[in-house]
Known about the structure:
Strand 3 (about 210-220) and strand 4 form a beta hairpin. Helix 2 (about 55-70) packs antiparallel against helix 3. Helices cover about 45% and strands about 15% of the residues. It is α+β, with helices and mostly antiparallel strands.
Amino acid sequence: MSxxxxxxxxxxxxxxxxxxxxxxxxxxNRGYIASLKAMQPNIDNPxxxxxxxxxxxxxxxxxxxxxxxxxxxxxAIEAFNKAIATGxxxxxxxxxxxxxxxxxxxxxxxxxxxxxxxxxxxxxxxLLMQQAAEGVDGEDLLEHVxxxxxxxxLRDRLLLAEVTLEAIWAHKDExxxxxxxxxxxxxxxxxxxxxxxxxxxxxxxNNDAASVRFSRAAYLVQDKSIDEATVECPDESSxxxxxxxxx
Length: 247
């Protein structure tokens, strides 16, 4: 069976099989970053059943994915929240639910709830990465976790989620990231460039044409090394500076 949707029950836990579809673009491809696309599994049933009370977590999660891919975002939000509220999702199921819950809120322009969902995704995804690194679980369960991490591009999605949360905060607080004393908490050129792409510092639509120069360890504040990025936007006379440090 190809391009399955949802999850299957396994020893009262959930293992994602929606991720077993054909490879999707990396979340760090330019077009993928711009839209923060969800996985788009093939949906065999285009008309989902109504959301009922007392359902199983796996049913709610599969229903949420069906609603999401059918562009019924409000119904998807309800289904994902019900799946999470059961308390029966394991970390793979929770990561899948929180990621698509964030996307659903974002598409409905509910920024505050979307940030909460994305923050929860970061927590769960970090636990999964730690679980795979430490290898403390049984071999079968650990293998399921590793397969999920690979097929859901969890490393890239986790980085994208962390960057997006920093960008959301920088939009709310104009001083955040604009001085060495209040740097954006992201380390490494990859994360920092991704932040600038998500944040979109240029007032016009020419963000991709902006010139960016990085100065590594430009400052030292309270024993923390601070990187500086200088952004020159097309059609703008003055450059902008952004500052970054490790958490």
